[in-house]
Amino acid sequence: MMEATALGVAVAGYGIAGAAALAGAALHRRFDAGVAAPLALGLAAHTLSLALRWDRVGHGPFISMFEVLSSNVWSLTLLFLAAFLRVKRVRPAAAVALPVIFVLMAWMLATHPDDGHLPATYRTLWLYAHVGFGKVFLGALLVATAVSGLLLLGRAQAAGPGGGGARDDGAMERLALRFLVLAFLFESLMLVTGAIWAQDAWGRYWAWDPLETWSFLTWIAIAILLHARVTFRVPPRGTAAMIVAVFALAFLTFFGMPFVSTALHKGAI
Amino acid sequence: MNATVLPASPGGPHPLLAALASPRVTLVALAAIAAGVVAHTQVEGGIAGLLAAVFAAAAANLLAALVVQPRLRADLPLLVFHVALLALLALAAIGRLTALTGTLELAQGEVFDGQLLTSEAGPLHPDGLAKMRFVNDGFTVEYAEGWRRGRTLNDVRVFGSDGQVTRRRIGDMDALVIDGYRFYTTSNKGFAFIFRWVPRSGESMERGAVHLPSYPMNEHRQAQTWRIPGTSREAWVMLDMARPAIDPGRPSRFRLPDAHRLVLVIGGERRELAAGESVTLDEGILVYEGLTAWMGYKVFYDPTLPWLVAAALLSIGALGAFYWRRFGRAEKERGP
Lengths: 269, 336
What we know:
The structure holds two protein chains of two kinds.
Chain A: H1 2-27, H2 32-57, H3 65-86, H4 94-109, H5 125-152, H6 169-202, H7 210-231, H8 236-260
Helix pairs in contact in A: 1-2, 1-4, 2-3, 3-4, 3-5, 4-5, 5-6, 5-8, 6-7, 6-8, 7-8
Chain B: H1 15-20, H2 23-42, H3 48-68, H4 70-74, H5 76-98, E1 100-107, E2 111-112, E3 118-121, E4 133-144, E5 148-159, E6 165-170, E7 176-178, E8 181-199, E9 206-211, E10 223-227, E11 234-241, E12 252-253, E13 260-266, E14 269-273, E15 278-280, E16 284-301, H6 305-334
Antiparallel strand pairs in B: 1-3, 1-16, 2-4, 4-5, 4-12, 5-6, 7-8, 8-9, 8-16, 10-11, 11-13, 13-14, 15-16
């Protein structure tokens, strides 16, 4: 009961934060406190809900679709909030990032909250390393995408110091690239720790299962993007469009592939 | 990341090498890897040759870039990143050439004699399995309600080449490692009939296990056909259990059934045997000794594993250092 109530408070907090961000974008004003405070409150309530569930079912949110979506809503919010508080120029991007989190949240609320069963091969620290790196990867990519989205929507000027500076697509591109590189590094770590875990658990470090394949393709897509930028004179909007495309690929990989394959990444029956 | 290619100059790199080192070729190679991976995973059985070709092309581009592009060598983290990436590709190739994957099944008390049921080995695999010996001393597999598999624990004894016997408990995340060969327990396990065959011809007695299909995955197909040693007779055997050995309605564990019957059909004649009973044929006597369990193992050998991890972590660390410096420098140049 408490678990569900806390999740309800979290959803309400996220909703208020998203509404404030979208209202700010529509009115060309900034409601930073109106975004950060309910987002932080929602995150605290979500943390409590996840902790209560963890205690009740005896394992972390790694198994059922509900758990995966809930933990990703939590981690994406956490990472976006951290970037929001730490980097001022990221703040207007809340109007792009939070709706993406809403999609996951709506999906989560429409999913049956199965308890799931933790396979024996999931009782390892490699699970936490692999999933943790994956969450930082997606979080950093979300921030890069949100900043890119802002750039593509022609709202880069709002991201200047104080929110009213001259239009600076280059600065926004550099900011998005920083988060993209962070995502690239953490995706690399996710792939390496996943391979170590797979070797220990299933006797193979790489088997081209659908999730492995498409995670690798996401990695290749980021590598292509970074190389393309130093090979050609890609304009900021071009970089931004590519970052959005990479995010779409990553999103389909991590949230679409579980519907294609129920193999090892669902826990080796 | 590669920098812009330098024009060929007198005394400079061969034009072909310069062309191969081009960042544009890098982009083509990366796109080819993506296409190759997609093709490999869409075709039944994969296209290993295509995959090898696109990765080899990328490695050639990377090597040429390291030779031709001064900028790649001037920046230490960038150099280390690209060299580590090249090492990763080389190690993966060496791994494929020397690796072995295979499967085996051992009944309780049975000794592994180096023979695999299935195997796939690289052309340079140094076969070291023949001298390997270990025995399956029994296992437990826990199940949650609804036949959801939990922890697997398997006791084994390893016979070293120096005569030493080592006891180990393996299972799930804990493989048995002997001379670089990793033996993993799997979800593939079941029951086995133990038979003794005493031929009338005076040949020596044979004792063996007939493995039934994996349990509980094949709960309703616990039957097997096999040929009696030294004869042309085929025997069909079936395990008849009063109730499931693993109760799906509550937490349980893999164990032999409380009560069972062996149904044996030879030459169209059906018999039921209990442990210790026998059947007399023209060629000899078949004694049913009892029921036991077998465990299916996966074996994996790849000497490059630790080096792969080291190269991967080195490349990530170097790339992190490169961007850390680059972004830091850009920040300083722009000022506060």
